[in-house]
Amino acid sequence: MSIPIPQITPLGDSGLLLLFDNSGEAAAAARCLNGAKPDWLLDAVPAYAALSVVYEPYRLNRLLRSGRLRLPDNHGQEGLLHAAAESAVLQMLGSNEWKGLSEQGRVVQVPVVYGGSGGPDLGSCAARAEMRPEQFIEAHAAAVYTVAMIGFMPGFPYMTGLPERLAQPRREAPRQRVPAGSIAVAGNQTGIYPFDSPGGWQIIGRTALQLFNLGTGSPTLLQAGDNVRFIPVQSSQAGWEEVSGR
Amino acid sequence: MSMAVMKPGLFTTVQDRGRPGWRSLGVTAGGAMDSYALRAANLLTGNLPEAAGLEMTLSGAELEVREDLLIAITGANMTPSADGEELPMWRPVWVRRGTCLKFGTAVEGCRTYLSAAGGIEVPEVLSSRGTDVRAGFGGLEGRPLMAGDLLTTGLTEPWRSQWAVRWAEKLRRQAAAEGRRWAVPSWYALPEAYAGGGRIAGHHVLRVTAGAEYSSFTKASLEVFFSTSYLVSSSSDRMGCRLTEGAKLERTASGEVLSRGIVPGTVQVPPGGQPIVLGADCQTTGGYPVMAHVISADLPLLAQLKPGDKVCFTETGLEEAHAALVRQEAALRMLEAGLCARLP
């Protein structure tokens, strides 16, 4: 697969903003950079088609002075270190086979108890979509979603792929407390709250899965590029059994 | 236990260099708002740069020293005292057990750092001891200090630094000879990170580079941004420094900006049109238009702005921003070299 060349602009004096054609490319580039992680590279944060790269100018400066970095002869008006960061990032992306890009992203199944006390907005959402609640559930669970970014709080996935007719406005007054595990919709996206927190999205169900857990290898259940399927279950206990093989 | 918290102060947290490396999973990098002051405090107590210290905000803590300690106080001046005697800042301080350390209200600056030899010992969470209050982890149970908390420092273990051991011994003897409960050397470090773009008639000047949506703001708004003397709002915190009293900043483009990764120093403009400069605890992503970025070398100055301060912006280029950062780093390395040379 050929390497998509992103458009690159500065993100302050310690970052780059890379713009790709789609979120799949941005997520794959993030996996490539976060996997290599040289000491001057702090973070690669994918969000939709954008990728924000955060670097440590002082360390990059050292790498530059060591002569181990190829630089274009003409480094432009943004200065040497910015050109060095750009060049180093493109070299890393270029040396990677973009395996992550061609790979079908992994699919994570999320058991959900729709409606009831865990999904207080299901009824009003279904009414706005001119559906019965069961139809809304069926449509929401039939789609395959893609995590376009993790943001707002640790482990909160912003997922694209919500069927157009399920799109919802944000609540006029945000709730003071949305419980952890709440499945939410807003605009044409769906998300899951990893922690109890204030929130303005419409809440349609709840999962017993932990979206953020410090005890395990990766602290989050999901990362950008993952695909997600919601599995309707009757109780959270049933949900655990059903997906225990994931 | 090395220190007991008698009064926590307004907002005091354990902070270190933060936890960059997890932002793609939505985890805030955090860390000391004024990383220069914490690094200097660590150098002055013989610590490695990753050691954790206390960050106090606007009004400081009252701490009872339970073991002999070598400490350093940097950042904002909260008129620190030991048993009522004013303590000098920006140098190592030896304090005897039983001494009460008191920090008052910041007379200049906003955030004060207290480092102790060996660092504040709390468990590492995602490779940092820093407190992330919003996520509720790191530091002391993911929260600010409370009265009754006990703080352990590396003093109970073999010190990592021979330098700290020898200075503690020298100052202990000096204190005994002077008949005091504390002692300091006559020399001190010069704080060199707060000049920013200079000061104009009592206003702090933050240097910025252009942000992604810079050219989408109207000409008039760009003029307003660079000529307004903004007031630091009292709703500012570690997430962001909120500015007020400027004419509304407007864009020519009305299109929404998609969320993307953001960093401390980012100057974003929400629909209200008053800028917010993001701080160490900013979220990992944001969808407001980005006007500019405060240069990294001026983030210590940003950290020391307090509500009511006046601030304005001046534009600079990346080349100058990087040069300023390299100079700041060089100053810290000079300090380190100077301290090594002062081994008693």
TrEMBL record, chain A:
Keywords: ATP-binding, Hydrolase, Nucleotide-binding. GO terms for molecular function: ATP binding; hydrolase activity. It comes from the Bacteria. Pfam families: CT_C_D. Residues 6-222 form the Carboxyltransferase domain. SMART domains: AHS1. InterPro entries: CT_C_D, Cyclophilin-like_dom_sf, PxpB. The keyword GTP-binding does not apply. This is Allophanate hydrolase. It comes from Paenibacillus sambharensis.
From TrEMBL, chain B:
InterPro entries: CT_A_B, Cyclophilin-like_dom_sf, PxpC. One of its GO terms (molecular function) is hydrolase activity. It holds the Pfam family CT_A_B. SUPFAM superfamilies: Cyclophilin-like. Keywords: ATP-binding, Hydrolase, Nucleotide-binding. Residues 24-331 form the Carboxyltransferase domain. The keyword Hydrolase applies. This is Allophanate hydrolase subunit 2 family protein. It comes from Paenibacillus sambharensis.
